[in-house]
Write a structure and sequence with these properties.
heterodimer; A: 159 residues; alpha+beta; 5 helices; 5 strands; B: 798 residues; five-stranded mixed β-sheet; 21 helices; 23% strand
Chain lengths: 159, 798
């Protein structure tokens, strides 16, 4: 049994016949070959699979691909400039050494972008730490991630 | 040997160069094992034991084999029929009676018995992962459950369930180090003896990338390729081919591509990659396996799990006279790759700490239990040793009314080299410098005021100290060999200068977050005087790198970096020969500096890139004396360990009503010798501290004592530190360069995980001391802290 789904991923329309139990993250990784979105826990607790759906961060291991009919999905591969320029949040993570092994990084960056959009200039260190509560990093101790999000937020607002 | 400072003058050494590898990780272009797919790829699902201990009565494959998409179902009997061997242990411990440790077999798939929840029983291979998983449900396995024991102390009691027939008392070995008679004599003349019973809580490493492997067998070439999330691909290949599968080593290529964190857990040879490599030949298709997180919790090697009784003897001035330690270490159900070395040579040897304690004796019972194998996890033995030493020192200071910093100063080693009573020779260090630096950075002077202010708010503040040492840069092969290591512990570096003067570096070290592609490039670019953009670093592939022992124990820059320096020496020496020919000068007159070969004292010179070109286009070249090309390889075997050390100070605020602990300040001042990239070093320290705080406050792997089930088998039950659990850290360094490696470096990867736990626990005890609290178990959850407060109150009322 299959089901059909049509959605937009990183600005490109996509249609597919899929197994109804296929998760969005499997659709992104296995069907579209966009392997920047990672699976760290299968249970919605680590945030490595975070993507933007209609502008809001969600954990793509927690929704079925079939639920994405008509949605606009953005993955880590879709946030940079057309010539490979880094998104301000990506650039801030590099500048602040906000990543080590890189595995949690795409999810962390997507969550951070969402956090800036929702909080704007009210983004204090406390708000960043609380806002990244759904994203696990085992390498950095979050110290430099917090700094990166602060810098990224400033860059995103042109400050 | 190059003097360390000669390197330190290089332009990029000590610079916070932004990482070369970041671009791919930030854009989703990293290639981790699960990101790689091969044509015709199939998927493996492992069937695991639901019992902690059971006899396998029968396995009926028939229904599973008929399930859609299934290509194979294999059990331990199938492996045995193919003469697949036991997973080996890389370190032979000799016990107190001179006997070898007990080494019961560790078949990659269980035979006859399962010995822990998650033990590997069978593998199902199918066209899709869902088909493999569905078919696994149809495997009919009958078990006869047996009594199980998960606690190492209980496993030693008479009548405890027996994990392996080869060790009827569950004792793998009893090992000791130090002079027992001298230590007993020290205690006999002691003015004060401090005694502690300590549990070092069991942890699960939890790299965010789950373990994964993709195995491919080529019938045409009769050769295997294995992609695997691993920290040491050459070791993985050697162990798998020579000890388990009986495949010639040159017929296997192991690639450890981008690896999403290791922390020790990806050092080891595991059953899963071994089984799918074997099975890829059976079904003649590539097989992929990626762990679900639940599988990672059950079957990644765990860490720590020590029960220790320790005693410190002091004279009336607080000088340490002797240290006596008895530890029971849980090895889990099987000996993992380096499981036996962790509670012995990586533990007992560190018990001198930073102190002049003249007599030390340690005895360790290493015990089999019905739990996942225990092996190296960030720090590996050294956090356990540091926890014992620092808790004793802090407790002794409290008991004797001596200031925490003062008792340390009175006992610090100040003259180097220093031979400890537990087999190590510290080459250099300045422990006072780190302690003073940390006290200043932590504003210890202002603490009484902060404590008083907190008290007004009904909160209790405390300060905890930890002045730790670790032995890194593993290891002089001859010494390690004499102590039981079954492998060499050198490292390999190859410098391939391309004809246009750019450089490709091949290293046997492996980066899984450490940033070697940047740090090692800084070393090479500085030494050759070329832009860092002209240097790329390749790691993690037995097909491209001559050999390597991999990355663990904070050894990469100290051993891998030294191998690169040795190869650079050869490049420079050959470059001088070529330059002498081209400049028509004597070789001894050529000097090399800032990327230019020059005839000393003249303006006759030739840049590095031209020497490279001459080596590959040898038209004007001393072909009669010198081979063309500029490509050098070096193996570096260290002459000693390195000894990073530092002072960590934790300041906490405790809510006595709820038991909640808030880390308001964490300060670390560490001596890693020379620092190549301070940004990366600070990042390593942050991450280590986070794992140390995790151990102290949050993390605990718990098995149910009755059923042997892992109770903490998900992120809902096992508390990995999240962003709002941790503070901003204050970190700084002091440097006494290592005296015996060419870069003067010591290693920084594990320091935080080693130094932090006693600092955190001591800070809580310091905060609660006015209430009469003398000890707190790890993890110091609000419940544990609240309980300790209530018990102290009860004692006071009684």
């Amino acid at each position: 049994m299959t089901t059909s789904v049509s959605l937009t991923v990183n600005g490109k329309p996509v249609s597919a016949e899929i197994d109804p139990r296929m998760l969005l993250v499997q659709f992104i990784r296995e069907h579209l070959g966009l392997t920047g979105t990672h699976v760290g826990c299968d249970t919605g607790q680590c945030g490595a699979c975070t993507v933007l759906v209609d502008g809001n961060a969600i954990k793509s291991c927690m929704v079925l691909a079939a639920q994405m009919q008509g949605a606009e999905v953005t993955t880590i591969e879709g946030i940079g400039g057309p010539n490979g320029d880094l998104h301000p949040m990506q650039a801030a993570f590099k500048e602040c050494h906000g990543l080590q092994c890189g595995f949690c990084t795409p999810g962390m960056v997507m969550s951070a972008i969402d956090l800036v959009k929702r909080n704007g200039k009210a983004l204090t260190e406390e708000a960043i730490r609380a806002g990244l509560d759904g994203n696990l990093c085992r390498c950095t101790g979050y110290h430099n991630i917090v700094k990166a999000v602060q810098l990224g937020a400033a860059k995103m607002q042109g400050v | 040997m190059n003097a360390p400072n000669e390197v330190a003058t290089g332009s990029l050494i000590g610079a916070a160069v932004r990482r070369k590898e970041d671009a791919r990780f930030l854009t989703g272009s990293g290639r981790y094992t699960d990101d790689i797919s091969l044509p015709g790829q199939t998927y493996a699902c492992f069937v695991r034991s639901p019992h902690a201990h059971a006899r396998i009565v029968k396995i009926d494959k028939s229904a599973a084999l008929k399930a859609p998409g299934v290509l194979g179902v294999f059990t331990g009997d199938d492996l045995a029929a193919d003469k697949v061997g036991s997973l080996p242990c890389g370190w032979l411990i000799t016990d107190v009676n001179g006997q070898p440790m007990k080494e019961p077999p560790h078949p990659p798939l269980a035979q006859d018995k399962v010995r822990y929840v998650g033990d590997h029983v069978a593998v199902v291979i199918a066209e899709t992962y869902w088909q493999a998983k569905d078919a696994a449900e149809r495997l009919d396995i009958e078990y006869e459950p047996l009594p199980a024991v998960v606690d190492a102390v209980e496993a030693l009691r008479p009548g405890a369930p027996v994990v392996h027939e080869q060790a009827p008392d569950n004792l793998c070995f009893r090992w000791s180090l130090g002079d027992k008679a001298a230590t007993d004599a020290a205690f006999a003349k002691a003015h004060h003896v401090t005694k502690l019973d300590i549990v070092n809580n069991r942890l699960i490493p939890n790299a965010i990338e789950p373990r994964a492997a993709l195995a491919h067998y080529s019938r045409a070439e009769d050769a295997y390729t294995l992609y695997v999330a691993n920290q040491n691909p050459h070791v993985e290949r050697l162990l798998m081919t020579a000890f388990v599968l009986g495949v010639p080593e040159h017929k296997m290529r192991v690639i450890a591509p981008d690896v999403g964190g290791g922390f020790g857990s990806k050092i080891f040879l595991y059953p899963e990659e071994t089984v799918i490599t074997w099975a890829s030949k059976k079904i003649n298709r590539p097989i992929k396996w990626t762990a679900e997180r639940a599988e990672a919790f059950l079957s990644d090697a765990h860490g720590r799990d020590h029960h220790t009784h320790a005693e410190l003897a002091l004279d009336k001035d607080g000088k340490f006279l002797g240290l006596r330690v008895k530890t029971i270490a849980n090895l889990g159900a099987y000996l993992s790759t380096f499981g036996s070395s962790v509670p012995t040579y990586l533990y007992g040897t560190l018990l001198a700490g930073q102190y002049t304690t003249p007599a030390i004796y340690v005895e360790v019972d290493a015990v089999f239990t019905n739990t996942a194998p225990v092996d190296a996890y960030r720090g590996a033995g050294r956090p356990e040793a540091t926890y014992v030493v620092e808790r004793l020192v802090s407790t002794a200071a409290r008991e004797m009314g001596i200031d925490q910093a003062e008792i340390r100063r009175r006992n610090f080693i100040t003259k180097f080299p220093y031979q400890t009573p537990v087999a190590l020779t510290y080459d250099t260090g300045d422990y006072n410098a780190c302690l003073e630096g940390a006290m200043k950075l932590a504003d210890v002077a202002g603490f009484p005021k902060r404590r008083a202010e907190a008290e007004k708010r009904g909160k209790l503040r405390g300060l905890g100290y930890s002045t730790y040492i670790e032995a890194c840069g593993l290891a002089p092969s001859n010494i390690a060999g004499a102590l039981g290591a079954r492998a060499g512990l050198f490292e390999v570096g190859e410098i391939r200068v391309n004809p246009t003067g750019t450089v490709t570096v091949f290293t046997g070290s492996h980066s899984h977050g450490q940033g070697h592609e940047t740090t090692f490039a800084q070393v090479v670019a500085s030494r050759l005087g070329i832009p860092i953009e002209n240097v790329d670093v390749v790691h993690g592939d037995t097909g491209r790198i001559p050999f390597g022992m991999g990355t663990y124990g904070s050894r990469s820059i100290a051993v891998g970096g030294a191998a690169i320096m040795k190869a650079l020496d050869k490049i420079e020496a050959k470059g001088k020969k070529i330059a002498a020919h081209l400049l028509e000068a004597a070789e001894s007159d050529i000097e090399f500096k800032d990327g230019v070969f020059r005839v000393a004292g003249t303006d006759k010179s030739i840049p590095f890139a031209q020497i490279a070109l001459a080596a590959y286009v040898p038209h004007n070249y001393p072909l009669d004396k010198l081979e063309p090309g500029l490509n050098e390889t070096a193996f570096y075997d260290p002459t000693n360990f390195t000894f990073p050390a530092g002072a960590h100070i934790c300041e906490v605020e405790v809510d006595p009503e709820t038991g909640e602990v808030d880390i308001v300040n964490f300060t670390a001042v560490d001596d890693f010798g020379n620092v190549i990239n301070p940004m990366i070093v600070e990042g390593q320290v942050h991450g280590g501290i986070a794992q140390g705080i995790g151990q102290a406050l949050l993390e605990h792997a718990i098995y149910d004592k009755e059923s042997g089930q892992l109770v903490t088998g998900s992120y809902m039950d096992y508390a990995l530190p999240r962003a709002d659990d941790l503070p901003t850290f204050k970190v700084d360094t002091r440097a006494t360069p290592c005296t015996h490696n060419p870069l003067g470096v010591k290693g920084c990867g594990e320091a935080g995980a080693i130094g932090a736990p006693p600092a955190v626990i001591e800070a809580i005890i310091d905060a609660l001391a006015p209430l009469g609290v003398k000890d707190i178990p790890m993890p110091a959850t609000p419940q544990a802290v609240w309980r300790a407060i209530q018990e102290a109150k009860g004692r006071a009322a009684a």
